[in-house]
Amino acid sequence: MSEAFIYDAVRTPRGRGKANGSLHAIKPVDLLAGLLRGLAQRNQLDTSAVEDVSIGCVTQTSEQGACIARTAVILAGYDEDVPGVTLNRFCGSGLEAVNGAAAKVAAGYADLTIGGGVESMSRVAMGSDGGALFDPQMAFDYGIVPQGISADLIATIYGFTRDDVDAFALRSQKRAADAIERRAFERGILPVKDVAGVTVLARDELPRPDTTKEGLGSLKASFEAMGTQFGLDALTKQRYPQVENIRHVHTAGNSSGIVDGAAAVLVGSREAGAKAGLKPRARIRAAVSISAEPVIMLTGPVPASQKALAKAGMKASDIDLFEVNEAFAVVPLFFAQQMNVDPDRINVNGGAIALGHPLGATGAMLLGTVLDELEARNLATGLVTLCIGGGMGIATIIERV
Amino acid sequence: MNAQGFSAQLDAATGVATITMAMPGRANKVNADFGAGLQDALATALGFQGLKGIVIASAHADFCVGADLDFVYKQRDAKALEEMVGQMNLLYRKLETYGVPVVAALTGSALGGGYELALACHHRIALDEPRVQLGLPEVSLGVIPGAGGTQRLPRLIGIQASLELIAQGKILRAAQAKKAGLVDALAATPEALREAALAWIAANPKAKQPWDVGGFQWPGGVQPNTDMARQLFMAGAAMLAQKTAGAYKAPEVAVRAVHDGSLVDFETALKVESALFAERVVSDDAKDMIRTFWYHRTAVEKQKGLPQTDDAGIRKIGILGAGMMGAGIAFVSAQRGYEVVLKDVKQASLDAAAEHCKKQVAEKAKHLSPAEKEALLGRIRTTLDVQDLQGCDLVIEAVFENKELKHRVTRETEPLLAADGVWASNTSALPITDLAEASAHKENFIGLHFFSPVEAMPLVEVIVGRATSEKTLARALAYVRSIKKTAIVVNDGYGFYTTRLFSAYIMEAAQLVAQGHDPVLVEWAARKAGMVISPLKVFDEVTLSLAAHGFEMMEHYKGEKLDAPGVRLVRKMVEAGRTGKAAGAGFYDYQTKPRKLWTGLRELAEGTPAETGVAYIERRLMLAQALEAARCLDEGILREKRDAEIGAIMGVGFAPNTGGPLAWIDRRGAAQVVAWADAFATTEGARFAAPKLLRDMAARGETFFEQV
Questions:
Q1: All domains of chain B, ordered by start, with CATH?
Q2: Which parts of B107-157 are beta strand (E)?
């Protein structure tokens, strides 16, 4: 089996996922097409060499329906031979797309591929694609609850207080602000331009560098009413009978932000890169997806990372930098606790609490973020992991070359 | 009239055919005959020249109060069931899509399958009388509607409104039903109802069901398969699960039927319902619930096999003790026209009781006129003077649970009774035979064990003492029937039946906590098993001091010292002032909101259990009660097996989904239950000793009830 290398990783800046967000006027297909065009341009890519474009997108309905990957490839002006596929592994979609692309390369089924993701949460609302995950049958038979309840359940069981999650959120904001200040994201970001070529957004616009502990502390727990008045907490009793009451600690301030954005990663074999005149930036050491218990839902990064490390023959201590998606503050806190990893090696440039979490794109974005930071610090290994709806988890380990 | 009792007659003047349902017996029941009879009558009606419309009416007092439960109970063949309801659905589709307006003339109640027929009509007019009830109560028997009810009602009144009615099995009186949209119009008399039906037919010659009109929009503001609908179903499902702890399948399946059916066209929706209906009907829990809530309950309510009397000769009732119990008994008696004298030794108690009755009138007798309300309250007289009890036909003694005190009031008051007056003690545990020692007329002495709050609790446990006469029993039963309560009749013995069962439940919970099992798991395991109230919560409500008092009485009657860890725990807590909810501290702390189990319980625990977990705890809690019920039968305390089930569920909140403690044993098999009992008896002691009756049953492979 041959190895898969990352030749480049780009993303759009993340726009506030609301009607007043800078990217709201841009169609999701244009976000993705613009990024694919930019990736090809900056690598002077002969796009006919690209064998597939695999894109993660969670809410595949309305303008994100009908295989947005294929549509974006056409709009990006890629060679007519290039196909596109859209996949959904919830919040792990973007990384899943890259992992799948890399797997094809490693298996020898393809030589040069693109994996990535897109989500315009301001235009296609989260959950608007329906589905059976939360329907009455699932609620009764499995006690499936919305993620916010699961996040609060983790905090309750593993002893994270409101102060803990707020302190983490504050740190995420500070780290993101510092990273933006020192232009840490510059290399990976391709600004979004409108049809006239005018730049619409060049920097992440969600962070609130002026966030304070007091401000965070004053926010209302987002899932308390849902959990107690509408009975959703009680659904978790079947699986977690020992929990008398769930402590609701997550708020809009310590959970991931709703944003618009896209990401793309160019993956290929050593030979394909050489042929295209590209220099590999990193190799993929391991890429796994796992499933854990679906009611608590968000614990997946731990077993996923353990499995990835085992596959790579590594230990957590062999990893220089971690990116653990901040779906909720408790997720990286739980990760650090269970994996016994120094928090200073996790999300060094902040995360989705400050920067936002464009569902289908985040996994691919984090891969670029960790790669840029490894290069900036001249470190070698990075691990990216995300918790995933329905109890799943995903992890990818890269190593600079 | 055809062989099934259905007829179709044309009124030539209006062109309206009336299909009259007059099935043999006293009621129309949905079964195979019903389907065949209706089909035949409909064919006749549709053949009439110049047919303009159809009125469906009943010749019986009720329109139709549902399925033939004899049929439903026995049915274990899902395929046959699906075919049967499939035929019914075809018939109803024909009725509603043939092209003539159809009106349901609801001159009496239309429930379950009966209301489903009404739903398949284009228009429903009900007689505006309180006796006329409407709704889909199927879930209370462990099943769901099977002839389109879960599909037509949501399309008629909206998803949210229908979910509340179907998943809770709510029954509405005609006036409420009109407000909720279950019926379209009310009529004051049967004649006016018929006039209204004819007028509606004349005005709506092309009537169609809303769901058969193109561009149909669901009422209630929520369209299926939208974010709003998904949120509504998520919250609806969660709120239901919060209430039922997953122990009751029928309401869950009902919600699923409404949800899954809302995603597809009407014909497909009927198939979705049919499959879910069949799954429910053939299930074990439906069998257990139908047996108890239909067969046992009917027998108990009819007081089958018990001495009857046409006239109990009871007009004036004296009640001793004006606590919660006395006040409640006074109110329900006055409500049914009895003249009540409520006697206490403290004016404050009497004042509180009077206040309680006033509040009850305001809350529970809204339908009465001001004069009627005044008359009701006027029938309750409070007094400090025992002489006011002169001439009572029945005295119900509800004073503190103390034999000497009870003896004293008996000696003091009994002479005031009318000739042949009945003396009833509302004791919850003290043997009636012992209490009757103070009586000069032991044959007239009986136990009437009410449950608190009296207004809400449907059960009265009637205790027959050694000397109690059949006549006294008959008179007591007539009284219980007259106040619309359900009576079980048991023989005498400390704790009778229900108190023993209830004690077994809450003391097993205390024992588990004392042994170091997680109290959170104890509470959950009980709810998961279907127990109506979790044991530590209800323990706090009845108070730990009452239980501690009970220990002393038990020691007296059983002649042995009680010293199990659970007993020690309760005594320690009482000493520490943690006596329950009223004290603000018991097994729970009531200072915080929501209330939380007291963290100190873990420190009071004696050791750590070798085995624990929800399944283990659930088995112990349920087995302790089931064995106690079997013992009561073995010892002859219980006279009828049906009373074990009804008394447990209606008296002390035993898991209704199981059908009762004996059904719980049957479902698991006596042999299995004995094996569990033997295993627990070695670690837990004699309270898990299986009675001989159960061992014999296990050996012979018998069940308490015939299985279907």
A1: 6-282 (3.90.226.10), 316-495 (3.40.50.720), 499-636+638-700 (1.10.1040.50)
A2: 110-111, 123-127, 133-135
* Encoded tokens for B579: 């006596």
Residue B558's pLDDT is 85
Sequence ranges of the domains in chain A: 1-124+132-401
C-alpha–C-alpha distance, residues A311 and A319, integer Å: 14
Separation CA B620–CA B626 (nearest Å): 10
φ/ψ bin of A393: left (φ > 0), alpha (ψ from -120 to 50), beta (otherwise): beta
pLDDT value of residue A1: 65
Q: A340 pLDDT band (50/70/90 cuts)? A: very high
DSSP assigned state of B296: I
| Cα→Cα distances B491→B237, B497, B653, Å | 44, 9, 21
- How far apart (Å, rounded) are the C-alpha atoms in residues A192 and A203? 9
Residues 6+ apart with CB under 8 A from B244: B251, B252
Mean pLDDT of chain A: 97
> pLDDT (tens digit, 9 = 90+) per residue, B66-85?
999 999 999 999 999 999 99
Q: For residue A40, give the amino acid letter.
A: A
**Chain B residue set in contact with A, beta carbons under 8 Å:** 225, 227, 230, 233-243, 245-246, 252, 255-256, 259-260, 518, 520-521, 524-525, 528, 594, 596-597, 614
The CATH architecture that domain A1-124+132-401 belongs to is 3-Layer(aba) Sandwich (3.40)
Contact B134, B171 (CB under 8 A): yes
Burial class (CB in 10 A: 0-12, 13-18, 19+), A181: exposed
Catalytic, B138? Answer yes
B386 burial type by CB count under 10 A (0-12 exposed, 13-18 middle, 19+ buried): middle
Query: ipTM score here?
Result: 0.94
Please report the pLDDT score of residue A2 as a whole number. Answer: 85
Nearest to B235 among A135, A230, A242 (CB): A230
User: 3-state DSSP call for residue B225?
Assistant: coil
Q: Tell me whether residues A140 and B252 touch, CB distance under 8 A.
A: yes
Task: Determine if the peptide bond prior to A303 is cis (ω within 30°).
Answer: no
Running DSSP on this structure, what letter comes out for residue B627? H
pLDDT of residue B305: 97
C-beta of residue A366 within 8 angstroms of C-beta of residue A350? no
Residue A133 with chain B: CB contacts under 8 Å: none
Residues of A in contact with B524 (CB under 8 A): 237, 241
State the pLDDT confidence band at A388, using cuts at 50, 70 and 90. Answer: very high
**pLDDT tens per residue, range A98-146:** 999 999 999 999 999 999 999 999 999 999 999 999 999 999 999 999 9
pLDDT of residue B593: 84
Chain A residues inside the 8 Å CB shell of B242: 231, 233-235
**β B133-135/B123-127 pair status:** unpaired
Bridge partner list, B53:
B16
Per-residue pLDDT of A80-96, as tens digits, reads 999 999 999 999 999 99
The answer to whether A357 is a known catalytic residue is yes
Nearest to A128 among B227, B597, B614 (CB): B227
Tell me how close the Cα of A108 comes to any Cα of chain B, in angstroms: 43
A170-220 per-position pLDDT tens digit: 999 999 999 999 999 999 999 999 999 999 999 999 999 999 999 999 999
Structure tokens at B419: 């000739």
- Structure confidence by residue, pLDDT tens digits, A4-14: 999 999 999 99
Torsion of CA B364, B368, B371, B374, to 10 degrees: -10
Say which residue the tokens 């329907």 belong to: A135
Determine whether B279 is an active site residue: no
Residues of chain B with pLDDT under 50: none
- Predicted pLDDT of residue A65: 97
